[in-house]
Amino acid sequence: VVAESHTSADRIVCHCLQVRESQVRVCVEDLQLDSVAAVKSHCGAGGGCTACHRRIRDLIAAHRDRVYLT
After folding, report:
1. Does residue 2 carry a pLDDT above 80?
2. Is the pLDDT higher at 58 or at 5?
3. Are the beta carbons of 64 and 34 closer than 8 angstroms?
4. Which end of the chain has fewer CB atoms < 10 Å from its terminal CB, N or C?
5. Torsions phi, psi of 18, nearest 5?
6. Is the pLDDT of residue 22 over 70?
7. Burial, 42: exposed, middle or buried (Cβ in 10 Å; 0-12, 13-18, 19+)?
8. What is the pLDDT of residue 69?
9. What are the φ and ψ backbone dihedral angles of 5, each rounded to 5 degrees?
């Protein structure tokens, strides 16, 4: 379960389950989850129609790029 803390700019990534980008970022950045399946298991994002899988993968890739470039 991921604590909810979002702003008006915190968009919904998974519309089926109403999971916001900040919740996925906690999974990826803080918990170091590195797959859609792991994110889905933790916060539920990606557990519905799967349309959000690409955005989840993009968030994972962006985090990985930031980590390796620093």
Report:
1. no
2. 58
3. yes
4. C
5. 55, 45
6. yes
7. middle
8. 79
9. -150, 105
